Every structure is written in C-alpha cells, then in structure tokens.
Amino acid sequence: MKRIKVLGSGCRNCANTAKLIESRAAALGVAIALEKVTDMAAILAHGVMSTPAVVVNDKVVHAGGVPAAEAVEAWLRA
After folding, report:
1. What CATH number is given to the structural domain containing 27?
2. Domain range for 26
3. What is the pLDDT of residues 23-65, one digit of tens each?
4. In sequence order, which ranges of 1-78 are alpha helices (DSSP H)?
5. Rounded to the nearest 5°, which phi and psi values hold at 18?
6. How many domains are contained in the chain?
7. How far apart are alpha carbons 56 and 30 in whole angstroms?
8. What's the pLDDT band for 8 if we cut at 50, 70, 90?
9. d(CA 25, CA 41)
10. What pLDDT does residue 5 have?
11. How far is Cα 15 from Cα 77, in angstroms, rounded to an integer?
12. First to last CA, the chain
C-alpha cells in the first residue's frame, strides 16, 4: 500500500489533486492510504513552499499546482 499525502490549505486545487489521486489509484487497482495535510508547520517540515504538493512514501514528488494524470499514474506504478 502506498502512503500518499496531499499538502495544502484545503483549496480547490488541493481537493482536485486528492480526487485525481483517488480516481487514478482506483482505475489502476492500487491500494493507497491518502492523507490531506493542512497544518502549515507540517507542510513546511517537508520543505514545500508551494501547494498543493504530493508526498509518496515520505518523498515529495510534486509541488505547486494540480499534477498531470500521467504523473500520478507513474507515482502509483513505481
């Protein structure tokens, strides 16, 4: 199971990022544990300066804007 965090304030882009990850994981049949992190101290602890950001298994893989579906699928397959 992949541990995925969406870091951000809870804005529309953050919500869209979480929905995209959930839908791509379901389509690929990949089990995920998705967590939405809105605490600014926790976000900064990851070294992220722009949101939404995505953390997969404790590694920041994306920051700033909604990621492309192809990128999400690559993270889920890795």
Report:
1. 3.40.30.10
2. 2-77
3. 999 999 999 999 999 999 999 999 999 999 999 999 999 999 9
4. 12-28, 40-45, 69-77
5. -60, -45
6. 1
7. 13
8. very high
9. 28
10. 98
11. 22
12. 12
